[in-house]
Amino acid sequence: MERAPKPDRPKIHGGYLDAKLLAWSWAEVRLTRSLNYWVTSIAPAGTPHARPVWGVWLDRRFFFSSGSRIRSNVLARPSISINLESGDECVIVEGVASELHEAMAIRRVTDAYNAKYS
């Protein structure tokens, strides 16, 4: 079983009023329930490329489909960031993207995606 990611927060001048970090389960609920996500990939010039996408959080991984620009960015530089659209309940997940090729995994993701977005 994979272990939960280590919680962290962005560095903000002056710090935070509450130093308590939230449990990973709190973030997973929001990742599962969210309808819209922002995916940031790295463009060929090295600049960030952010776009809203639909997706599903399944087995502690984020699955999404996108247009050719994000795909070509990820194939060249697989580092990405996924953010929820809410600024009040912020969740940011950073990781490495890859294409999904296994037929059974694609079916599970497709079923979850169709159930979520009807």
Protein model, in words:
There is one protein chain. This protein is of the alpha+beta class. Helices cover 29% and strands 26% of the residues. The chain is built from three helices and six strands. It has helices at 24-33, 68-76, 103-117; strands spanning 37-42, 48-53, 55-58, 61-64, 79-84, 92-96. It has a four-stranded antiparallel sheet, with helices on one face. Strands 3-4 form a two-stranded antiparallel sheet. The protein is globular, with a radius of gyration of 15 Å. The mean pLDDT is 88.
Topology:
Blueprint (H helix, E strand, L loop, with lengths): L23 H10 L3 E6 L5 E6 L1 E4 L2 E4 L3 H9 L2 E6 L7 E5 L6 H15 L1
Residues in β-strands, percent: 25-35%
Radius of gyration: 15 Å
The total count of helices amounts to 3
Order of helices and strands: HEEEEHEEH
Q: Strands of the largest sheet, in order across it? A: 2-1-5-6
Overall shape: globular
Largest sheet data: 4 strands, antiparallel
How far is the first residue's CA from the last residue's CA?
Answer: 31 Å
Oligomer: single chain
Q: How many strand elements? A: 6
Structural class computed from helices and strand pairing: alpha+beta
Low-confidence stretches: none
Helix content: 25-40%
